[in-house]
Write a structure and sequence with these properties.
The protein is of the alpha/beta class. The protein has helices spanning 18-25, 64-70, and strands at residues 4-7, 29-32, 44-48, 60-63. It has one domain (4-70). Helix content is 20%, strand content 23%. The chain has a four-stranded parallel sheet. It is globular, with a radius of gyration of 11 Å. The relative contact order is 0.34.
């Protein structure tokens, strides 16, 4: 398992689709409104409007447009 961080502009639908993203990326828990600094646990899906870089080793960074595409939603 690993950490996935979905980032992008406010209002892009990250929170609304967070459960769908959690399932798609195989995460255990959603951390909505992540501040870009707080500690994350293995299996977390962090949702944020903070832009990278993040100090989270081995995290998978996914822009919201790519996340939508990954779950076959219109960007």
């Amino acid at each position: 398992m690993s950490i996935v961080i979905i980032y992008g502009a406010a209002g892009a639908g990250k929170s609304r689709r967070s459960e769908m993203y959690k399932d798609h990326f195989g995460c255990k828990r959603v951390v909505d409104g992540w501040d870009g600094l707080s500690k994350l646990r293995d299996g977390d899906l962090a949702i944020t409007n903070v832009s990278p870089p993040f100090n989270v080793p081995d995290a998978k960074l996914v822009h919201v447009v790519k996340a939508k595409s990954a779950v076959h939603l219109m960007a």
